[in-house]
Design brief:
This protein has 26 helices and 19 strands. By secondary structure, it is an alpha+beta fold. Strands 9, 10, 11, 12, 13, 14, 15, 18 and 19 form a 9-stranded mixed beta sheet that branches. The longest helix is centred in the C-terminal third of the chain and has 55 residues. It is globular and about 105 Å long. About 1% of the residues have low confidence. Bound molecules: adenosine-5'-diphosphate and magnesium ion.
């Protein structure tokens, strides 16, 4: 074994789990310890200020600047009691992570000294000098002004010595430069549209909230082994590596016993997450070796998104304390499952009703069907856009790879709900509604057992599955910001509900009774959205052919899929709901294409370096040893005998020569292809060139490297192999 590998593997085997000191209190006692939640607001704010702030949070009232100073003062008092010295506006730029710039609370006191200060002005708005955040040309570097502005609907929290203030990030000219600003607008749009539709059923509904419960999948690898893999370090995935003889074929990892060192990491992570108010609940092993999942209890969508961003950075930090690195990349290893982030989504009213859940009465169930059918119609109309919302250079490796939904959006409803929709579609109006004297109409909506919630049949291959009281969008990538999918989905549903309401109202105006009008329009939508419904095996080739026939978006090229954002129907959807303008959409696509290009570019460079510095030299060294051996055999044996005995080695010498020369040729060709692509001006065309002409080289080169890995002496191979990366814990 090479010295480097020996050292790192040794370190992995001798690592003791880090001590996790359990807090003496119970989770219910330390939950949200570091969050400025209502309880703390009440304690640290004057009562008038408290009521005004709650009005802002609960009812979306405009933020009254006159209370900002008092809020800031209360926050500072709470934070300094926890030893906090700095504050930061915490925002989500279009790079997948979060951004923060820390400032100390100190100010000159005007007498040559310092005092701790934190004013309302600093809380509400900042001007991060951040011309280097991706902005797609909206903000040129010479007018670098962008603003971050406080989002009072997500509570501030403390990490280490810093008070973190969730903010949106917008350009001087008002365009969104982040995920949060359009998400808040999408949530506002779906709230308004859904409340209006709810009024057909219940006049008391004042607010509809979108909920999100994410399930985060991830891999853990030993830190020492990780450090010896430049590809993991620089790109987040292995660009080479032959499958281990054993991987997931025994299906012995899923829900298996959690290894001790991993359990210690999870426990530590959960304590810290709970302290930050993230309601983590579920943990288990996933399908692939060293793959795990974490899920909280669902929350209001904006908060859930912030919590997911926060937990991803927390995972990275806590993993290091346990000698691990966490891999959030969608496909860190070839040949075993990749990681996703299921987005469980639903709508609920301020009257406590989950709109995606069946109810007890026929009216309840009509409301339930109304929301389900409108959701399906929205997903059908914008299936290409929804796919674009989850697409990235990294997630592209996972989709369609026989472990995740294909790059086609479809929806699974299960037998019971499908039957209900079929019944509604096929039966005549009179069958469904009978007039019953003064009591008004009687509805023959089929009884939908409440048991449905727990009984829904499951289909793991569906990208958008109904699961009893919610839809589970399974296509988002493990590394992604959930906001991207949530912006597209909530906006699409908002637009659809507005159209639905308009059509129903038109019928009512013409004298049609309300229930009958609703049923007529629903029946029309059930027909329209039929192509999106698919309960079969989403992994099969037959489905790909069938989906194409149904007119669903079957494009697989990531940069081309981004075009969906700029289709007229998408622009119309985003503009009519006030979520994003055409200019914003165009700018964001520039960023997406640029990011795509850069990711492939980095992978190509890293692979080129690895080939020239690790793989080829090692292979040639081993080859020379064999050549040496062949020569020496001749000095011991007769020529004929030596030739016979060395035949095997000679064959290996030849194979190494073939693989290395092929690899070198391909690397040279890849460099040339990059030079050509780099000259392309248009970000879109450049990204397409990287997809079509450069990415394929990565796979071809890898094939030959993996063959060499199998031939070359293990002692000489410098890079940790899959069997070490995936099985050392
Ligand atoms: P499964 O693996 O069966 O999909 P998990 O327990 O891993 O289930 O995750 C389900 C997620 O869905 C959890 O985050 C849960 O809180 C969330 N969830 C449950 N009901 C709803 C709902 N009505 N709306 C949104 N999310 C929900
Ligand atoms: Mg799930």
């Amino acid at each position: 074994m090479s010295k480097l590998r020996f050292r790192v593997v040794e370190s992995a085997f001798h690592k003791k789990p880090a001590e996790v000191v359990s807090p003496s209190e119970r989770p219910s006692e330390y939950f949200a310890k570091y969050v400025f939640n209502r309880e703390k607001m009440f304690k640290y704010l004057p009562s008038k200020v408290y009521s005004k702030l709650i009005d802002v949070i609960d009812n979306g009232a405009a933020l009254d600047r006159s209370i900002a100073d008092a809020v800031a003062e209360g926050m500072k008092r709470w934070a300094t009691e926890l030893g906090v010295t700095h504050y930061t506006h915490w925002f989500q730029p279009l790079t997948e992570g979060t951004a923060e710039k820390h400032d100390a609370f100190v100010e000159h006191d005007g007498k040559g000294g310092m005092l701790e200060e934190f004013s309302g002005k600093l809380l509400i708005q900042q001007e991060p000098d951040a011309s280097s955040f991706p902005n797609g040309g909206i903000r040129n570097t010479f007018e670098a002004r962008g603003y971050s502005a406080w989002d009072p609907s997500s509570p501030v929290f403390v990490v280490d010595d810093t008070l973190c203030i969730p903010t949106i990030f917008i350009a001087y000219t008002g365009e969104s430069l982040d995920y949060k600003a359009p998400l808040l607008k999408a949530l506002r749009a779906v709230n308004k549209a859904a409340v209006d539709v709810c009024h057909y059923f219940d006049a008391n509904v004042k607010k509809v909230v979108a909920y999100l419960g994410w399930e985060q999948e991830y891999f853990l690898v030993d830190e020492g082994l990780y450090a010896a893999r430049p590809d993991l370090l620089l790109t987040g995935r292995t660009l080479m590596g032959h499958e281990a003889s054993k991987n997931q074929q025994l299906e012995d990892h899923y829900f298996g016993a959690i290894p001790t060192r991993v359990a210690a990491f999870m426990k530590d992570l959960e304590i810290q997450a709970l302290e930050l108010g993230i309601p983590v609940k579920t943990r288990h092993n996933e399908v692939a070796p060293n793959q795990f999942e974490l899920a909280p209890i669902y929350e209001e969508c904006n908060l859930a998104v912030d919590h997911n961003m926060l937990i991803m950075s927390l995972m990275r930090k806590v993993a290091r304390n346990h000698g691990f690195r966490v891999l959030l990349h969608e496909k860190p290893f070839k040949g075993v499952n990749g990681s996703g982030k299921h987005n469980n989504w639903s709508l609920g009213t301020d009257t406590g009703v989950l709109l995606m859940a069946p109810g007890k009465t026929a009216e309840d169930n009509l409301r339930f069907i109304t929301f389900v059918v409108n959701t399906l119609t929205a997903v059908y109309k914008h299936n290409g856009l929804l796919k674009a919302s989850i697409m990235s250079a990294t997630n592209a490796h996972r989709l369609g790879a026989n472990e995740a939904p294909p790059a086609i959006i479809s929806s699974f409803l299960g037998t019971q709900l499908s039957k209900v929709l079929d019944h509604l579609e096929e039966s005549a109006n009179e069958d469904l509604i009978s007039l019953a004297g003064k009591q008004g109409m009687k509805l023959d909506i089929p009884q939908i057992p409440e048991l449905l919630i727990d009984n829904t049949d499951r289909n793991r291959t569906s990208p958008f599955a109904f699961t009893g009281n919610r839809f589970e969008f399974r296509a988002p990538g493990s590394e992604a910001n959930c906001a991207s999918a949530m912006i597209a989905l909530n906006t699409a549903v908002a637009e659809q509900l507005i159209i639905f309401k308009k059509e129903v109202d038109e019928l009512i105006e013409k004298g049609e009774p309300k229930i009958s009008a609703i049923i007529q329009i629903l029946r029309k939508y059930i027909k329209i959205c039929k192509p999106i419904r698919f309960d079969g095996n989403g992994y099969s080739d037959e489905w790909k052919a069938e989906a194409a026939k149904r007119g669903l978006d079957c494009e697989t090229s990531c940069p081309v899929i981004f075009d969906n954002y700029l289709k007229p129907e998408s622009i119309k959807m985003f503009e009519s709901t006030g979520v994003m303008t055409k200019k914003e959409l165009e700018a964001r696509n520039e960023v997406k294409w640029d990011m795509y290009t850069k990711k492939i570019q980095i992978e190509a460079r890293v692979l080129g370096d690895l080939v020239m510095n690790h793989v080829v030299p090692v292979a040639i060294e081993y080859q020379s040893k064999l050549v040496d051996n062949v020569y020496k055999m001749k000095s011991i044996f007769s020529e004929e005998e030596a030739a016979k005995l060395s035949a095997e080695n000679i064959a290996i010498i030849k194979k190494i020569a073939e693989h290395t020369s092929y690899i070198k040729e391909q690397v040279d060709a890849m460099v040339e292809a990059r030079k050509v692509a780099n000259k392309i001006e248009s970000e879109r065309e450049k990204a397409i060139a990287y997809h079509d002409n450069i990415a394929p080289y990565l796979e071809q080169i890898r094939y030959h490297i993996d063959k060499l890995e199998l031939i070359v002496d293990d002692q000489m191979w410098t890079l940790p192999k899959y069997r070490e990366l995936l099985f050392v814990r």
